């Protein structure tokens, strides 16, 4: 949450690089944005705006150093004053911050009593006044920043910019931050994707580290202030996959990329799938965890492991797992799923599991991310950068991974690959006929609620589908286990209420069909998603049977429906209100 970008180097194009960096990071927060850039005449140019950065311009001037920020509000509403960067009373320090300063209230009161003038309601602003206050008795900036570190609590990542000194101090504890270096140019960002247009040579700061950057180079300090070596690594992915290209939105681009992403897993990840299966086989219990969409992939995983591999794999929501870990043992395996690898709720739970010495296996889409780095074994989805806030290709890639691991455990990997190949063909057919889903979206966009029903793994698909629809179209969508209908849910059904039914021809078929009749009898508009049509369906979407991999095309239908519902309602599917792509605060 919140995007931070900084540039310090030899080029005089800092303004455009910072703006481009913020645009690349906008998916992390888009309430407001701002920059602080040193002009050649020595003055500091500061500009802040409410809203998305979109095609914003800033006056063009030569500069070789500056910082920028795109915000997802935590403390303090969406106002220009609350936008970052924040500047101290003297105008000599500027900061951009991601995270929460948990003890800001006490610090603020104290600083106000000492005469500091605050211009925002944010927790972040205390940082800059605190730096100013410490500087009154200490001129060595490294010591100033070390003192600052010891005074603020919470999960934070920040850049402190000293324009006179032409240097940055970067602090990290919890929230992610990465530095890219090429020749004498340095780029700092919340996410490597914003740095990749310039270099793939990066260093991911670890918790409690502090990095100083100036024209004379970089110095890294540990939590006690001792110098250490920053070991840069070369990332293997490029900036190209993060471009929108000819597409109107990232969401549709990423939906349409799925056949290629899923095929890549079949073709290249066999060794990794074998490794994961082996870890599960030898673990004393495996616990799948993730948040949001990743949690629904985990839930689907429990069904797939049970049915295909005859194994009970536990599942918990990432933010809840912390309260469920007292039974973890040294030989327990925590299998964490996260597109970004930065979701704080998942990471916080994982840290507790590591304290209990459990092993960590992760499946992320972000090489070098926090979760990737802290894992004993890290697997990558290789799905290419996912920019739209609503996760699509990462979800289906997670399902394919879990599906193939389950088949590997059952010694039937070839069958698993065959089903996924069928699922890919089915997705391609659906994509060719996407105009039908667009028409359906226009028809049902006026409704306040949509319900989605399924049993077994289709129940997990129903939950994910509902999330996709509600987050981008703001229509109340609920996924339910079809069998639960009679236990209360059916009270919600009114005349014409759209009810989507995932009804693959598996062991759930007949019972799910009964649910269709039950909602139809109460006036619902029944949308059947199945390989077999039935007269109970008012609308039928054909999805060929691909064994248990049918969950994949089924969810793609909901992704397309969510996308077209957003368009029908004139909404921006890439940046839904109140959300940010990467949830790095609690
Ligand atoms: C929904 C969505 C979120 C994320 C969740 C976890 O479309 O994208 O629910 O799935 O915030 O994110 P990651 O997978 O990055 O841990």
Overview features:
eight-stranded antiparallel beta sheet, 17 helices, 22% strand, binds fructose -6-phosphate, seven-stranded antiparallel beta sheet, Glutamine Phosphoribosylpyrophosphate, subunit 1, domain 1
Topology summary:
Blueprint (H helix, E strand, L loop, with lengths): L2 E6 L5 H12 L6 E7 L5 E7 L14 E7 L14 E2 L6 E6 L4 H10 L11 H11 L5 H11 L4 E7 L4 E7 L4 E5 L2 E5 L11 E4 L4 E6 L2 E5 L5 E2 L4 E2 L15 H7 L1 H11 L1 H13 L3 E5 L1 H18 L4 E4 H4 L11 E6 L5 H12 L3 E6 L5 H5 L2 E4 L12 H17 L3 H20 L1 H11 L4 E6 L2 H17 L2 E6 L16 E5 L6 H12 L4 E6 L8 E4 L8 H18 L18
Parallel strand pairs: 16-17, 16-18, 18-19, 19-20, 21-22, 21-23, 23-24, 24-25
Antiparallel strand pairs: 1-4, 1-10, 2-3, 2-4, 5-6, 6-7, 7-8, 8-12, 9-10, 9-11, 11-15, 12-13, 13-14
Helix pairs in contact: 2-3, 3-4, 6-12, 6-13, 7-12, 8-12, 8-15, 12-13, 13-17, 14-17, 15-17
The structure holds fructose -6-phosphate.
GO molecular function: carbohydrate derivative binding; glutamine-fructose-6-phosphate transaminase (isomerizing) activity
Organism: Candidatus Roizmanbacteria bacterium CG_4_9_14_0_2_um_filter_39_13
Keywords: Aminotransferase, Glutamine amidotransferase, Repeat, Transferase
3D architecture notes:
The protein is α/β, with parallel strands linked by helices. It folds into two domains: about 230 residues, Aminohydrolase, N-terminal nucleophile (Ntn) domain (Glutamine Phosphoribosylpyrophosphate, subunit 1, domain 1), CATH 3.60.20; about 325 residues, Rossmann fold. The protein has 17 helices and 25 strands. It has an eight-stranded antiparallel β-sheet with strand order 3-2-4-1-10-9-11-15, covered by helices on one side. It has a seven-stranded antiparallel β-sheet with strand order 5-6-7-8-12-13-14, covered by helices on one side. It has a five-stranded parallel β-sheet with strand order 17-16-18-19-20, with helices on both faces. A hairpin with a 4-residue loop joins strand 7 and strand 8. Helix 6 packs parallel to helix 12 and helix 12 packs antiparallel against helix 13. The longest helix has 20 residues. The model has no long low-confidence stretch (mean pLDDT about 95). It binds fructose -6-phosphate. Fructose -6-phosphate binds next to helix 8 and helix 15.
């Amino acid at each position: 949450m919140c995007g931070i970008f900084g540039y310090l180097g030899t080029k005089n194009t800092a303004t455009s690089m910072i703006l481009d960096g913020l645009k690349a990071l906008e998916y992390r927060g888009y309430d407001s944005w701002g920059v602080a850039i040193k002009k050649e005449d020595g003055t500091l140019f500061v500009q802040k705006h409410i809203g998305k950065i979109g095609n914003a311009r800033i006056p063009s001037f030569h500069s070789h150093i500056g910082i920028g920020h795109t915000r997802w509000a935590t403390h303090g509403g969406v106002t220009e004053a609350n936008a970052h960067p924040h500047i101290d009373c003297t105008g000599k320090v500027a900061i951009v911050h991601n995270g929460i300063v948990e003890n800001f209230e006490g610090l603020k009161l104290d600083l106000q009593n000492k005469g500091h003038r605050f211009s925002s309601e944010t927790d972040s602003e205390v940082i800059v006044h605190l730096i100013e206050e410490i500087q009154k008795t200490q001129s060595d900036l490294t010591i100033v920043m070390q003192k600052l570190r010891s005074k603020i609590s919470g999960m934070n990542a920040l850049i402190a910019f000293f324009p006179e000194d032409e240097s940055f101090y970067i602090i990290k504890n919890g929230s992610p931050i990465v530095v890219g270096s090429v020749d004498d140019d340095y780029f700092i960002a919340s996410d490597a994707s914003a740095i990749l247009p310039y270099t793939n040579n990066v260093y991911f700061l670890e918790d409690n580290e502090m990095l100083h950057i100036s024209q004379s180079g970089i110095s890294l300090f540990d939590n006690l202030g001792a110098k250490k070596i920053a070991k840069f690594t070369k990332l293997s992915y490029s900036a190209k996959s993060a471009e929108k290209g000819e597409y109107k939105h990232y969401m549709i681009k990423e939906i349409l990329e799925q056949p290629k992403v899923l095929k890549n897993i079949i073709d290249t990840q066999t060794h990794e799938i074998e490794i994961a299966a082996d870890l599960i086989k030898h673990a004393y219990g495996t616990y799948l965890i993730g948040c949001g969409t990743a949690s629904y992939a985990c839930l689907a995983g429990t069904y797939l492991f049970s049915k295909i591999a005859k194994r009970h794999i536990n599942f918990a929501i990432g933010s809840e797992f912390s309260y469920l870990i007292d039974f973890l043992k040294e030989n327990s395996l925590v299998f964490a799923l996260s597109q970004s690898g930065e979701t704080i709720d998942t990471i916080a739970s994982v840290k507790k599991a590591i304290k209990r010495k459990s092993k960590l296996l992760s499946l992320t889409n972000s090489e070098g991310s926090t979760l990737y780095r802290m894992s004993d074994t890290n697997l990558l989805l290789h799905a290419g950068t996912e920019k739209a806030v609503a996760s699509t290709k990462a979800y289906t890639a997670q399902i394919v991974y879990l599906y193939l691991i389950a088949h590997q455990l059952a010694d039937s990997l070839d069958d698993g690959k065959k089903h996924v190949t069928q699922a890919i063909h089915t997705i391609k057919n659906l994509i060719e006929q996407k105009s039908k889903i667009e028409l359906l979206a226009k028809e049902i966009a006026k409704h306040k609620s949509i319900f989605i029903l399924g049993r077994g793994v289709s129940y997990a698909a129903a939950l994910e589908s509902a999330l996709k629809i509600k987050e981008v179209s703001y229509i109340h969508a609920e996924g339910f286990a079809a069998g639960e209908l009679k236990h209360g849910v059916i009270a919600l059904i009114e005349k014409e209420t759209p009810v989507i039914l995932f009804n693959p021809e598996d062991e759930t078929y007949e019972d799910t069909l009964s649910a269709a009749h039950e909602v139809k009898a109460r006036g619902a508009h029944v949308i059947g998603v199945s390989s077999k049509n039935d007269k109970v369906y008012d609308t039928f979407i054909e999805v060929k049977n691909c064994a248990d991999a049918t969950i994949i095309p089924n969810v793609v239908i909901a992704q397309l429906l969510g996308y077209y519902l957003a368009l029908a309602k004139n909404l921006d599917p890439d940046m839904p209100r109140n959300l940010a792509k990467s949830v790095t605060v609690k």
